Amino acid sequence: MKKVGIIGTGNWGTTLGFLVSKNVISNLKYFKKEILIYGIVEEFEGKSMDKLINEDHENKKYLPGIKLPDNLCYTSDIQLFSDIDIIIVALPHQFIDSLIKFKEYLKKDIIVLSVVKGVIEYKVSFTLVSDYINEIWGCSTNVLMGANIASDVAKGLLGNILYKCEGTLGYHQEYDRDVLFRLLNCKYYKISCTKDVVGVELCGSLKNIIALGYGVTVGLGCSKNTSISFLRCGLGEIKKFLNFFFPATSSETLFQSCGIADLIVSCSMGRNYKFGKAKAEEDISLEDFEKKIGNQKIQGVGTANCIYNYLITKERKDDFPIIKMIWSIFCDNEECDKILDSF
């Protein structure tokens, strides 16, 4: 039987903890009942995360109103991960370096799943989060992306069929695929699988850039037609980016949950959309907006900066006018209404 551990107690990490804690109960032949979820030592409303999850069984800071299973157990002790067989990495990409300290405790044959949406700046280029994890842990990292608003997935897991969701699993080995599918798939969260790991991960990262811009169009008061036109053109730039720089990726990946579905959801109600909208309406800074939403991280700005700098090195920045404009607005103080010149 395999033991599962999750790194990250944010809303998505906690939701995945909820999901796998429920799923293992009906799969005790394959998985151990206790699910560990690791997080930093922090408090909310005078209670530690330890007490919130292990005693109250609710992460009131990041996933309020959702009762968590008793077999989901919080820990801040890295050494407990020496017994883990499957790790789900659910950190914001800004904190990915914190994984280095886990290395000495991990099993050699561990199965790793990253749900991190973002890229990491590397010299004059960038690296995928999964590749970075592979490098520091010496593993082969699978990825899960999709149209996943954490609170909606959690409501579905409570039994509300109106909140049925899905995700795309990008895998390397068939054995990993089978184990992770059994761990994650259920009536309310359907998993589709593909070997296009790079395509899945890039779709999940690049859509955050487009969601920022979509939010700007809404914040400016643009018509729905205009905003949807921007979304379509943004999808075109994602497709072009994959074709130009990662031609081995599959065009079919764009039609999975990690592709157009995730883009639509992110442009409707995701954090990056909300920040873009607020930026256009009140010119709020990234730091102030993150504080406003409980210190949750906005992935799109850092991703836009990495991707734009990469395009400069490839002498292709003018081939991607939307990405260039998003960088200008969020990283170089360009006026928000200039976005209308990018598509």
TrEMBL record:
One of its GO terms (cellular component) is cytosol. InterPro entries: 6-PGluconate_DH-like_C_sf, 6PGD_dom2, G3P_DH_NAD-dep, G3P_DH_NAD-dep_C, G3P_DH_NAD-dep_euk, G3P_DH_NAD-dep_N, NAD(P)-bd_dom_sf. GO terms for biological process: carbohydrate metabolic process; glycerol-3-phosphate catabolic process. Residues 196-340 form the Glycerol-3-phosphate dehydrogenase NAD-dependent C-terminal domain. Substrate binds at K117, R271, N272. Residues 3-165 form the Glycerol-3-phosphate dehydrogenase NAD-dependent N-terminal domain. GO terms for molecular function: glycerol-3-phosphate dehydrogenase (NAD+) activity; NAD binding; protein homodimerization activity. Pfam families: NAD_Gly3P_dh_C, NAD_Gly3P_dh_N. It catalyses: sn-glycerol 3-phosphate + NAD(+) = dihydroxyacetone phosphate + NADH + H(+). It comes from the Eukaryota. Keywords: NAD, Oxidoreductase. Its EC number is 1.1.1.8. NAD(+) binds at G8, T9, G10, N11, W12, G13, F95, A150, R271, K297, Q299. The active site is at K207. Belongs to the NAD-dependent glycerol-3-phosphate dehydrogenase family. This is Glycerol-3-phosphate dehydrogenase [NAD(+)]. It comes from Vairimorpha ceranae.
